[in-house]
Design brief:
The chain has 345 residues and is an alpha+beta fold. It is built from 5 helices and 20 strands. Strands 6-5-4-3-2-1-11-10-9-8-7 form an 11-stranded antiparallel β-sheet. A 7-stranded antiparallel β-sheet has the order 12-14-15-16-19-18-17.
Length: 345
Amino acid sequence: MRLFVSLCGKLLGGLLLTVVTNAYAEERQVCLDWLKIVAFAGHQTDYSGVFVYQYDDRVETSRITHLAEADSEYEKIESLDGPKREIVRHHGKVWSYNNHKMVQLDSHQGRGSFPSLLPEQLSALSENYRARQAGQERVAGYDAQVILFQPKDNMRYTHKIWVHTNSGLLLKAAVLGDKNQLVEQYAFTHLQIGGKIDRSWVQQTTTSNSGDEKLLSGHPQDASSGVRGSDLPGPAEAAKHGSNTNSGWVADALPSGFKKTMEIERPMHGKHAPVTQIVFSDGLSAISIFVEPNDRDEDDVEGLSSRGAVNMYHKVSDQHLITVVGEVPPRTVMQVFDSVRFKGK
């Protein structure tokens, strides 16, 4: 009898574990499917609205208009507070509108600008984050599915997103610290999806592109002085302005799950020699290591700095200026920096 009870208990325990495991796998797949929908909607949906970006007790407000054509897409972002600024994106290129003139810039699109925030490796997410649906809420008057991505360690942030249940457009995105405190957040306060949206500025964009001045890529230090986390150059974008290389530089203490996605030499504004950039990703967050000869520039201030979810450590080591910047907590940036060394080509 006791043997029978014991066998029944083990069988029941095994069945329960199987049910829980299958339920979690199904939940995880649903969350990943939502991300795929977000990726599509951010590029294929016409919308216009106002969103706020919150970080470090500061708030910035912008107006965004996005139009999808048969073979292209157009996006315009206008700052509504602080210095007047207008950015237009078209065919992977970026223009800044100042003094009635469009000036072409190198794109710094990283994961993409809100609401097109998008992980580069969806398949790697399940290895590093626990994904679950966290109910439904309303954002800017629209019903949204809330999805939470919690890291499996304390070396990365928690990510929370709100997705429009009908169109799949990302309505809100928050980055949370290990005590659930808000690190940064994007959220629409007013939004129109579809319908009649002003397209007059599209013609101005297409006719103003010829003869525009091309600027070099910005320095990584810009990541903590006026560049948002979503503006960090990602592998696909940065590779356009550099060449593949095997620099011999390595980082021995990357958090588990971060894999190298790119290693290039690229020009940077104000630098006499190309800068080596190595990019690592865990599927949702990225870490970049920049290595360059020390030019003894007085503007290269050493130390840790941050802007929202982006943290950067910048220091001279053995005649090289090394910068580690990423959308990860400060302790992670410091750990990676301390492990950077030249292994040899």
